Amino acid sequence: MTRSYISRIFRFAPSPNGYLHLGHGFSALLNREMARAAGGKLLLRIEDIDLERCRPEFEQAIYDDLAWLGLDWQQPVRRQSEHFDAYSEALTSLKKRGLVYPCFCSRADVVAAASEQADVKRDPDDSPLYPGTCRHLSPAERKRRLDAGQSATWRLDMAAALKEVRHAIDWREYDGGTEPRLVEAEPALWGDVVLARKDVPASYHIAVVVDDALQGITDVVRGEDLFTATGLHRLLQTLLDLPSPDYHHHELLRDAAGRKLSKSLRAKSLRALRQDGFTPSEIEAQLGLNERSFSFVP
Predict the structure, then answer these.
(1) pTM to 2 decimals?
(2) CA pair distance 18, 61, nearest whole angstrom
(3) pLDDT tens-place string over residues 99-128
C-alpha cells in the first residue's frame, strides 16, 4: 500500500525494561530534530509487550529523561500492553490464510534440532534458524495438541508468505542522510520467525508494524542494528496490507570495547548522567548533534 504524505510523523519507541542510556538519547534527539526539519510531529510509544520485564518505574523514568532532554510529544502516549487486541487481529488474519502455524518446541528443542544439522544456519541476530519441526505436523495433530492445552508459539511460514507475495519487496532508506535509496528486503534471512510467544500474544515484529500503521508513522528513525529486521517488517506490512514508512537507520553509540551501548551491558544511564551534573546541552554536544545539519527531502 502506498501513502500520500500530508504531514510527517516520527516516533521514539523505547521499552521500559531498564533506564535509558546515551544511545537512547541519541535516537530520541535525532527523531526530534528530523521531525522539526520536516515540519512534522513526534510521537512517543511505550513498547511494553514484555509484561514480565517492563516496570512502571522504568516507564516513568522514560518520561522524566526525555522531558529533561527537552523533548515533547503528542498525547496520548500509546502503550503496547493496552493494544493486544490489535496484534491478535493481525495474527488472526495470517492464521486464516495459512501463513502461520503453532510451534510446540522449546528454545532448547530448537537449539538441539539445529545442532544436529551439518551446517547450522543462523538469523541476523545470530540465533539458530528454526528447522521447521512443527511446520510438518498435520492439521489434525496441531489441533489435538492445542485442544489439549499444550502451549505454543506462532511462527510465520516464510515459504508460504513469500509465495503469496510473489514479488520483490523494498523500502526507502535514508541512512541518516537526506537522499533516499531503495533497499531490497531479504525477509527469508529470518526463517520461520516467531510472531506470537507463549507468554506474550505478540512479538516485537508484528507489534511494531501494526503500531506504525495505526499511528500513521511516516518516518522510522532507529538504530542500524534493526536494518535487517526492516526486510521482515516490510514483508509483514505487505501481507497485512499496511503502509510502508520511510526508514532512517542511524549509527550506534559504542563503548571503548566497540560494543553497542545496551541495558544488558549496564551502559551508564541518562538518569545517572543527570545526577552527575550533566546538562542537556552538554549531552547534545557529546553526541555531536550540535555539529549536524538537518534537512528533509520528501
Answers:
(1) 0.91
(2) 9
(3) 999 999 998 888 888 777 777 888 999 988
